[in-house]
Amino acid sequence: xxxxxxxxxxxxxxxxxxxxxxxxxxxxxxxxxxxxxxxxxxxxxxxxxxxxxxxxxxxxxxxxxxxxxxxxxxxxxxxxxxxxxxxxxxxxxx
Amino acid sequence: xxxxxxxxxxxxxxxxxxxxxxxxxxxxxxxxxxxxxxxxxxxxxxxxxxxxxxxxxxxxxxxxxxxxxxxxxxxxxxxxxxxxxxxxxxxxxxxxxxxxxxxxxxxxxxxxxxxxxxxxxxxxxxxxxxxxxxxxxxxxxxxxxxxxxxxxxxxxxxxxxxxxxxxxxxxxxxxxxxxxxxxxxxxxxxxxxxxxxxxxxxxxxxxxxxxxxxxxxxxxxxxxxxxxxxxxxxxxxxxxxxxxxxxxxxxxxxxxxxxxxxxxxxxxxxxxxxxxxxxxxxxxxxxxxxxxxxxxxxxxxxxxxxxxxxxxxxxxxxxxxxxxxxxxxxxxxxxxxxxxxxxxxxxxxxxxxxxxxxxxxxxxxxxxxxxxxxxxx
Lengths: 94, 377
Ligand code: SF4
Hints:
The complex is a heterodimer of chains A (about 90) and B (about 375).
Chain A: E1 5-14, E2 19-24, E3 27-32, E4 50-54, E5 57-62, H1 64-76, H2 80-88
Antiparallel strand pairs in A: 1-2, 1-4, 2-3, 4-5
Chain B: H1 2-7, H2 14-32, E1 39-45, H3 46-54, E2 65-72, H4 80-90, E3 95-99, H5 113-118, E4 123-125, H6 129-138, E5 143-150, H7 155-167, E6 173-179, H8 182-191, E7 199-203, H9 204-210, H10 217-222, E8 226-229, H11 233-249, E9 254-256, H12 268-277, E10 278-280, E11 283-286, E12 290-293, E13 297-299, H13 308-311, H14 327-331, H15 363-376
The structure holds iron/sulfur cluster (SF4).
């Protein structure tokens, strides 16, 4: 919940409501981009950029190297698979 | 230390790691000369705790350094009474109770959510409060309640979900809010009379939201250094060295090692949503720490219709920590987990007595899980 997971913005889902699609390790899901969006630019400006996603909300824009390092960290501490399955809506932890 | 040699190649940049370990050792030795206890550094965030154990950072430290694993694991500090509240709400026939998976096994006085689910309550794991809101939309004849947990890192997500519910006019949705805030908690720790900590590794993702300024009181009022840190092992080593240098020079301040993610001012959109939706609770209960003034939030009066406490007319449960549990002493760094008689006997990850055994970010569970690595050091 606190580490977040890096993903790459792949599409705009709902401009008015600040929703984008983010791809994380091959999984795509809707993510709220309100906290990283530039108020003066359309959401499409985010497409292709990396963001750090916490519980379905993009909280920070990061560069690709940072994204790769964080994905590696998550894999090494054994959190990556659980996080990705949880994103897909699968129950893994209980 | 054999452990150092054995594991160093796991680091992304082993040469840099080696240098940092060496620098840390000589700096700590200089500080420790002339004092009778190790330099004690508290990492506030459970994510840091996890990294410290996974990479055996503690085992590789010289004897002059000790970590105190702080209170920054939200499920670890979830009090028993709050779990009982959640179960009481989840038992309502019309309710779909939704929660992050981590909270499922936390023991309340009346069992855990996982036990309540086995007994028939409709309790579902969700990844995001957005998923809970989607469930509400898809099930208009049910009441969907989301268990809003976590520090400032997850607080914006539930605040924005409430704003979204209001915009979409979804009415069968509410929060059981147990969001907690780190600043009053750090202050409460520092005000304890025998608090043995010399400096702090600050929580990176809390600071990503609130910025670095709210931590200024540590150096200013308590003479304590704090370095906001990233989560890679190299980040933590670097931050630790920065803290040690501050201790050595006697000039405590707030530094930001995690600039690549943490702006000094935090995230304005996130803070605005939090300020709009939440208000400070007069007090909030913590497992292992008791009651701390102004350390949690609840929905502000304008958003009361989304407050599950109001909707279900909940009388809050109070349940003291269980007998024999020494989570408080471990949390503030007064004892090590294995000094608790329950550790590994009546308290294990499969059957946790205290909360520090529940999540892999809790100090006791981390020691239990990584003990092999620790011994290797
Ligand atoms: S061993 Fe269990 S009861 Fe003892 S301090 Fe750790 S979590 Fe608490």
